[in-house]
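User: Could you go from structure to sequence for me? I need the amino acid at each position, not a summary. C-alpha cells:
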C-alpha cells in the first residue's frame, strides 16, 4: 500500500531536496488523477439489465455501420453470469466482428470470451479467438490466416476483458468527479489499464425517450480517451464519440 499524500508530506521535507520535493508532489498529483484502481468488489454489474441495444456507427456525418449488443442473464456452474454478445458490422459487411463474453454478473470479471472477425480466412484481419479465465490463469488460442497462437498468462490479481468497453464502464460505481483505473487483459495488447473519468452529466435522447446520463471520458490510452454517455438508471452505454468516429444508440439494427 502506498502512503497517503498527507503522510508522504510529513517526511518529504527531511528526505528530499527542494527540487526533488517538487517532483514528488507532481508524482503524487499524477497518481491521484490517474484514478483509484478498481477492485472486483467495486463493480456493480447487477445494475445492468437484460435486453438488446442497437447503435449506429458513424464517421463524421456518415453512417457506416451498426453494433448490436445483447445482454442475457444466465447461470454458469451455479454462478449468476451475464452472457453478452457484441456484433459490429460496417462498410457493407467489409468489417464484421462478433465478440461473445461470459462474465460474473456482480463483478463483471470474465469467465470466457470468443471473438470472430471476418467470414473468410482470406479477409484482412480474419481471426478466431477463444479464451478462458480460470484458476488464476488466462488460457486460449488465437487463430489467424498465418496459423494458431497459444495464449497462456498467469494472473496474480483480477483483470477485466479488454475487448468489452461500454458495459464494463457502465458497471462502475460512477459518481460526479469519479476517477477509476481498471486493469484489463486483451488478446492482442496483453495487460493494460482503462482510464475512466466522470466529467459531468446530461440528458440524452434515446428511442425510449430522454435518459439521464453520466458523461465519461474513458479508454485504454490516457492521451486519447473517448467520451461516453452512460445511462444512470438502468445502467447502459448510450454512445461514445472520438476523433475517429462515433457510436450512438438507435431504434433498430439495419
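Assistant: Here is the amino acid at each position, in order:
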Amino acid at each position: 500500500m502506498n502512503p497517503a499524500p498527507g503522510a508522504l508530506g510529513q517526511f518529504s521535507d527531511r528526505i528530499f531536496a527542494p527540487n526533488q520535493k517538487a517532483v514528488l508532489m507532481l508524482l503524487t498529483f499524477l497518481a491521484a488523477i490517474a484514478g483509484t484502481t478498481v477492485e472486483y468488489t467495486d463493480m456493480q454489474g447487477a445494475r445492468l439489465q437484460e435486453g438488446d441495444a442497437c447503435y449506429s456507427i458513424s464517421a463524421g456525418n456518415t453512417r457506416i455501420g451498426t453494433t448490436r449488443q445483447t445482454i442475457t442473464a444466465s447461470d454458469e456452474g451455479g454462478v449468476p453470469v451475464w452472457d453478452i454478445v457484441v456484433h459490429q458490422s460496417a462498410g457493407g459487411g467489409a468489417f464484421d466482428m462478433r465478440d461473445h463474453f461470459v462474465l460474473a454478473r456482480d463483478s463483471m470479471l470474465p469467465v470466457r470470451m470468443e471473438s470472430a472477425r471476418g467470414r473468410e480466412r482470406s479477409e484482412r484481419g480474419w481471426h478466431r479467438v477463444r479464451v478462458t479465465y480460470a484458476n488464476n490463469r488466462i488460457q486460449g488460442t488465437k487463430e489467424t490466416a498465418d496459423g494458431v497462437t497459444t495464449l497462456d498468462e498467469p494472473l496474480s490479481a483480477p483483470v477485466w476483458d479488454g475487448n468489452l468497453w461500454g458495459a464494463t464502464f457502465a458497471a462502475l460505481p460512477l459518481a460526479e468527479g469519479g476517477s477509476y483505473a481498471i486493469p484489463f487483459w486483451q488478446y492482442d495488447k496483453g495487460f493494460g489499464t482503462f482510464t475512466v473519468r466522470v466529467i459531468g452529466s446530461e440528458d440524452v435522447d434515446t428511442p425510449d425517450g430522454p435518459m439521464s446520463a453520466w458523461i465519461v471520458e474513458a479508454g485504454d490510452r490516457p492521451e486519447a480517451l473517448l467520451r461516453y454517455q452512460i445511462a444512470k438508471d438502468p445502467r447502459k452505454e448510450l454512445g461514445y464519440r472520438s476523433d475517429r468516429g462515433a457510436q450512438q444508440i438507435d431504434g433498430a439494427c439495419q
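One structural detail worth keeping in mind: The two ends are 50 Å apart (CA to CA).
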